[in-house]
Amino acid sequence: MRRLEEATGLSRGAIFHHFRDKESLFLALAEDDVLRMTEVVAEQGLVQVMRDLLSTPAGSGGETLNPADWLGTRLEVSRRLRTDPEFRARWAERSEQLTIATRERLLRQREAGNLRDDVDVDVLTGFLELVLEGLVSHLAMGLPADDMDPVLDLVEETVRRHRRTH
């Protein structure tokens, strides 16, 4: 709460004037992250969200995602998904936005001839979401992030259509 007060310039009372409790505030922050991620996915794909997560904020205020803040929110969401059935039900509605954006991006890429056509789009969507969750776990364990670019390159190459030359 102190960080939020400092970041917004609002008092705790002013913040809770807009949110009935910490859970409502947290859910609003998490929803905000999902919306930003959905925008990135729609324009650049889910792998770009992963690249943004790995990048160090430039401090310019123009980053799409603040990796440190996003990771903290994502880890708390993961914890609550495991321990709170009511939260899990409410979160399913919100996270569906990201799945839809990923699927729609993949469909557009397939129509453009850039996506492999031997694997169902829903399977590719699940694959990319699983890689994202694995990356979050990797970062949560404090493992190095500086060697992940080649891994994400491989993920992108895995879903791309390979054109054969004869």
UniProtKB/TrEMBL annotation:
What keyword terms does UniProt attach to this protein?
A: DNA-binding, Transcription, Transcription regulation
- The UniProt record lists the keyword Transport: no
Query: What Gene Ontology molecular-function terms does this entry list?
Result: DNA binding
Identify the residues that the record assigns to the HTH tetR-type domain, covering every copy.
1-37
Q: Matching InterPro entries, A to Z? A: Homeodomain-like_sf, HTH_TetR, Tet_transcr_reg_TetR-rel_C_sf
Q: Name one Pfam family in it.
A: TetR_N
Is Metal-binding one of the keywords UniProt gives this record? Answer: no
SUPFAM superfamilies, per database record: Homeodomain-like, Tetracyclin repressor-like, C-terminal domain
What protein name is recorded for this chain? Answer: DNA-binding transcriptional regulator, AcrR family
Q: State the species of origin.
A: Actinokineospora iranica
